[in-house]
Amino acid sequence: MIDLDISDEGLWTVTINRPDKANSLTGEMLTELVEIAERAGDARGFVLTGTGKVFSAGADLDEARAGLATSPLWERLSAAIAALPCLKIAALNGTLAGGANGMALACDIRLAVPGAKVFYPVMKLGYLPQPSDPARMVALIGPARTKMILAAGQKIEATEALAWGLVDRIVAPEALMDTAYGLLADALAAKPETARGILDMCR
């Protein structure tokens, strides 16, 4: 239920493929995502996306109740993605919810389709967010807006997320992947040391 495509140019495309369950993640799927991210050190570009109308609803509900919601695998995944030296893009084909926020926040650029929403209802559910998520969110949108999402439980529409800086561009669904790949074109064509050097300076 996790698809991986690696192009000849070194572009890794990771697709969450469980649309009948809103791309919610089981423990097995989460482990597979971690393993992919941890072995993608040589990737020249990295794209995360999903199938259907939801990027990911976070943890599978049954497994969340059994402990997956607080698994250290979530933090391990976002840390592995953040550590990748290449340009990383989250191509949000739909709503981003719960623990799935961490992997998107760890990317360098977030694209979203017009109908996407972002929410992270940890206060309502009685969990703490992943340790690195609040800091990454604050860096993007500031402390008050972060509290709107994490403490006040607000669902943020794509247009508001764009205005806040939580997503970087709104793209029509049929153009989402072409836009993501287009943003990676220069990095894929550059010498690896040039691409890494520029990204290091930006971080």
CATH superfamily: 2-enoyl-CoA Hydratase, Chain A, domain 1
Give the proportion of residues in helices. Answer: 40-55%
CATH architecture field: Alpha-Beta Complex
The chain-level structural class is alpha/beta
Spatial order of the strands forming the largest sheet: 1-2-3-5-7-10
Give the total of beta strands: 10
User: What is the count of helical runs?
Assistant: 10
What global shape is seen? globular
Q: What number of structural domains do the residues give? A: 1
Largest sheet: 6 strands, mixed
CATH top level class name: Alpha Beta
pLDDT averaged residue by residue: 97
Describe the structure.
Helices cover 42% and strands 20% of the residues. By secondary structure, the chain is α/β, with parallel strands linked by helices. The chain has a single domain (2-202), classed as Alpha-Beta Complex (2-enoyl-CoA Hydratase, Chain A, domain 1). Strands 1-2-3-5-7-10 form a 6-stranded mixed β-sheet, with helices on both faces. Helix 1 packs parallel to helix 3 and helix 6 packs across helix 7 (143-150). It is globular. It starts with a strand and ends with a helix. The model has no long low-confidence stretch (mean pLDDT 97).
Summarize this entry quickly:
By secondary structure, the chain is α/β, with parallel strands linked by helices.
Spell out the blueprint of helices and strands:
Elements: E1 2-6, E2 11-16, H1 27-38, E3 45-50, E4 54-56, H2 61-65, H3 73-83, E5 87-92, E6 95-97, H4 101-105, E7 109-112, E8 117-119, H5 122-125, H6 133-141, H7 143-150, E9 156-157, H8 158-164, E10 169-170, H9 176-189, H10 192-202
Helix pairs in contact: 1-3, 6-7
